[in-house]
UniProtKB/TrEMBL annotation:
Keywords: Calcium. Pfam families: EF-hand_7. This is EF-hand domain-containing protein. SMART domains: EFh. Signal peptide: none annotated. It comes from the Eukaryota. Residues 30-65, 121-156, 159-194 form the EF-hand domain. GO terms for molecular function: calcium ion binding. The keyword Nucleotide-binding does not apply.
């Protein structure tokens, strides 16, 4: 995933400021909520989570060429509560990672089969937003990069440092001082309000 982000970072980004990312929140929110129908299709037993077997069958239906091992890795990467069930916000992160990792024709075919027209454009905005924050293009966002990105937008406002630190802390789930694209996506689903109330207990 880090390598995929480094490749994308080398292409640059059209984002000019953190505010331009925030301006796109409503559009992203609407597009991601449209994924709910896909989620419900794959949640075959309608228990509100997607289990590993359901994920395998979902990839088969979309004719995506992932090996069993790749599917397991993706599932583990996105099952942040490690409860062997993927909730809706975790599923969105999974879809975005699939978009990032599979730039081949089979993936494009699968994306069109998902039936969510603006999904690719939405994921592209999210990738661009991460690349904008990742100033040194190493596939991670550091605290300094976050402060730098927010300061570019809010010149002269003393509060911008605090805002940057708060945003960074919200993203840095494992508290190691570096944010991966996956951590960024999880924070993003929270910022726009796609969240599971039960998750609050697990923080």
């Amino acid at each position: 995933m880090v390598e995929a982000m480094q490749r994308r970072a080398s292409e640059g980004t059209s984002m000019k400021s953190f505010n331009s990312i925030i301006m796109k929140f409503p559009k992203i929110d609407e597009s991601l909520r449209n994924c709910k129908t896909i989620f419900e299709q794959f949640d075959e037993d309608s228990n509100g989570t997607i289990e590993p077997e359901e994920l395998k069958s979902c990839f088969q239906k979309m004719e995506m060429s992932f090996s069993e091992e790749e599917i397991s890795d993706l599932f583990e990467a996105c099952d942040i509560n490690e409860n062997m069930g993927m909730k809706f916000n975790e599923f969105i992160v999974l879809l975005c990672l699939v978009y990032l990792l599979k730039e081949d024709p089979t993936a494009r075919h699968a994306k069109s089969k998902m039936g969510v027209p603006n999904l690719e454009a939405t994921f592209e905005i999210l990738v661009n937003a991460f690349v904008f924050l990742d100033k040194n293009r190493d596939g991670y966002v550091s605290k300094n990069e976050m402060v730098h990105a927010i300061n570019e937008t809010t010149t002269g406002e003393r509060s911008s440092g605090r805002i940057a630190m708060k945003r960074f802390e919200e993203m840095d789930w494992d508290r190691n001082g570096m944010v991966t694209f996956k951590e960024f996506l999880f924070a993003f689903t929270r910022w726009i309000g796609i969240d599971d109330p039960e998750d609050e207990d697990d923080e």
